[in-house]
Amino acid sequence: MKKLTEPEIMAILRAADELIGEGGRNLLAKILKGSKEKKLLALHLDKCPVYGYFHKLSLAEVIEKIDWMIKHDFLEIQYSGRLPMIVFTDRGWELERDQRADEILAEWYQWIEQDDFSHDMTYLKDRNRGMILILLDKIKETGERRFIPLLEKWGEIDYKKVRKEIRATISHIVKNKATESDENWQIIRAELLKGRNPRDVDLKCMKCGNIFPFRTFERYMYFTNQWRYPRLCPECDQENR
Ligand SMILES: [Zn+2]
After folding, report:
1. What is the tens place of the pLDDT at every residue in 154-186?
2. What angle do CA 221, 227, 232 make, to 5 degrees?
3. Span from the CA of 231 to the centroid of ligand 1 (angstroms)
C-alpha cells in the first residue's frame, strides 16, 4: 500500500482522538467515511472536524489506511476485555496533542474576533495534561492580550496545578510580546511523521543560533515528562537558569 500523505495521517489521528480506548478500527473508519449510522450520530462523532474526510473511499479502503497507521506505529490496538480498541502510540499522540492544541487555539481566535467570551470553559477540564501545557505555551507565543478574559474564566474552573500554569501564562502575556513560533518542533515533527523509529535530529538554538543534537532518548524523556522540547542549546539553557 502507498505511503499515506501528511494530511491523511493527521486526519486519521484527529479522528482517533474522538474514541481513544473506546472504539475500534471499524468505528474509526466510519467517522472518516462519514457514516450516518445511529451509534455514530448518538456519540456526536459527526461533529468531528474530519468526519467524512475519506467520503469518496469505500469503508474497506479506509480500514486499509487505518491498518497502515497501525503498521507504521502511529496507532495500536489494545484489548479491553475481548474488544480491540484503538489507542495512540507515543509517537501518534505526540503529533495529535500538538494538532489538538492548534485546533483549540484557532477556536479561541474565532471567539475573540467575535468578542464572544460566553463559552463554558469546563470543556478544557480533565483533558490530557501534556496537551494543555502545549496549548498554554502556544497561547504564550501569541502574546495576544485578548485571550486574558478566556484564561481567567478557565482558571476559575480548573485544578490548582493547571490554574498555576494559567496564571503564569497570563503574566507572560502581560509582560511579553509575541515570540517566534517553535521551529524546532517542526523539525521534530517532520521526523516523527516519517514513520517507525524516528532518528536523532539537529535543532537550532533560538538564542545563539548554534546547531545542537537532540537525541531520540532525550525526546522520549521530554515526551514522558511532558516538557516542552528545547529551544535553546545546552550552553544558553545553562546561562538562562
Ligand atoms: Zn545557544
Report:
1. 999 999 999 999 999 999 999 988 887 778 999
2. 95
3. 9
